[in-house]
Fold this protein.
Amino acid sequence: PGPRRQRRSLARRTARRSAVTPRDCIALAAEAHAALTCTPVNRVRLILADRHLDLSFDSEELSDLLTRAVDLLRSDSDIGSGPDAPRPSARFAVGLNPEIIESLAQSFEWPRFDRDSQIVMLHEHHRLAIQCAEDGPVGLHWYDAERHAGVYLARSMRAVTELEQPRPLLRLFAWWAEQHGMLVAHAAAVGTERGCVLFAGPGGTGKSTAALAAVGQALRYLGDDCIVIDPAARAHALFRTARVWPEMRDRLRRLQPQDSFEWQSYLGKPTTWVDPAYVTRSAPIKAVRSEEHTS
């Protein structure tokens, strides 16, 4: 059956249950992954740390919304199935599925959460995160390390735009990186292809501001919040987004693409896309600067 019919079937089976357990969530996510990868509307291949990742989307709108932040990772080669085609290290499926998310909301007494709160559950080789907002669940992330498969299901396009667009599929990337001996670090990074400096520290210490202020003629941007670090101590850019407070907007106009000056609010902090001309995809780590709060 087609994806819509499968989604309705999943929703009916879920509605008959008095409560949805983590095992139920895993089964629902696995079935949704199979449905989305079987008949995708759009497929995108990424290359991160010399590994291929395949992304399947159930709509062009969703694909356009979530791939912009990772467009520097897109592979030039088409996704093929021949003997010479590179085998992906994982397959992620992305789709809107309000039926499953609503079934989660109706199965529990959900407390009031801040925006982008996460309930994370680990079960054998499965990783599961339920994304919550003030009115309950709005998204579900699932990764199966044994099958190398991940899925992101959202309740609505609004949830995707507000919570997922600036750092799309971050949970899936982090679980995938962990499986391959890598780390998605909460850090910023600038440098050249010869080497880079990490700015590490808690939120609000100025990592984004310092990294973006350093980018110019000599230095390039790798990220301001999430950096992939491999076992060889090499940093890899993941998103070409940046989050800074409004007073920094005018100073950063030079980093904006000429055809776009968009600021998306993410948890109250404006987010924009850095011009690809100022971004480098990877570099060996030469130094780490630790940032901390000051009075």
The two ends are 60 Å apart (CA to CA). The chain has seven helices and 17 strands. Confidence is low (pLDDT under 50) at residues 1-18. The longest helix spans residues 22-38.
